[in-house]
Amino acid sequence: MSEIHLTPDSRPLGKSGIQVSPIAWGMWRFAGQSEDVGRTLIEAAFAAGVTFFDTADIYGFDGSGGFGDAEALLGRVFAASPGLRDRMVLATKGGITPPVPYDSGRDYLMAALDASLRRLQVDHVDLYQIHRPDILTHPHEVARTLEDMVASGKVRSIGVSNYTPHQTRTLASFLTGVPLASQQPEFSPLCLDPMIDGSFDQAMKHDVAILAWSPLGGGRVARPTTPREQAVAAALDVVAAKFGVDRSAATYSWIMAHPARAIPIVGTQNASRIAELADAYKIIWSREDWYAVLTAARGEKLP
């Protein structure tokens, strides 16, 4: 029986020419901490083999304030620790603007990028993604804006987040000189949509990196309550016990085993939990074990 072996080796970020770690660390809960704590968490991620860091201008927003706080904290960490920025692949996102809620118009996105760079205290980011699709902006305008960002030297590569396969394909058709490097959907054993709606197939066809947000299903994999969640947790626990890791590591590994080579974006703000990310590479998946998790996730037998 063939088996799936995962390795911590870096892999291409789509066609961007940028190499990234197979696991990314997300900063949606990074705001509200000291620079020292922030630096400790980043160093823990480096020690676990993570080089890919994902943030956004909306991170830190609590419904009334805090817009940009995660980026600003990261910028202060960079300022206090020269050289730290050069050790990572840095991604950020824009296009959510409460209470509008979405704006991908050229003027807004260009201003949002400049604001992100000021908060981050950097002159460029390695990946800039449209955070959510703005239905009222023509994809041709979005494409020209993204390409101009790259031409300006402020952005090395571009991507989208929460786009449908059709929206992604349409935007890509208007890009002339810069390929989409990434697509960032929600994906976990409790959210299988990208595996079903064609997102993964499209990404494999066009060599686009998949960045999977909420890989633990918003914490439901770790704290299951419904029968479906408990069945998924039980299937993951069989594999976790076999290789001496915890359920979270098994979940990240399950996500990474798909041939789309999805990169889970892990959001834990606990240094000891970050250190355990490397455990994901300890698992060797048999097809039987991997499909057992999928069957539990589907809630019915495979056809």
From TrEMBL:
Using the record's annotation, list all stretches that form the NADP-dependent oxidoreductase domain: 23-290
In Gene Ontology terms, what is one molecular function of this protein? Answer: oxidoreductase activity
Q: Which domain of life is it from?
A: Bacteria
An example GO CC term for this entry is:
cytosol
Q: What are the coiled-coil residue ranges?
A: none
Gene3D superfamilies listed in its UniProt record: NADP-dependent oxidoreductase domain
| A Pfam match | Aldo_ket_red
Name this protein carries in UniProt: Aldo/keto reductase
What taxonomic ancestry is recorded? Answer: Bacteria, Pseudomonadati, Pseudomonadota, Alphaproteobacteria, Sphingomonadales
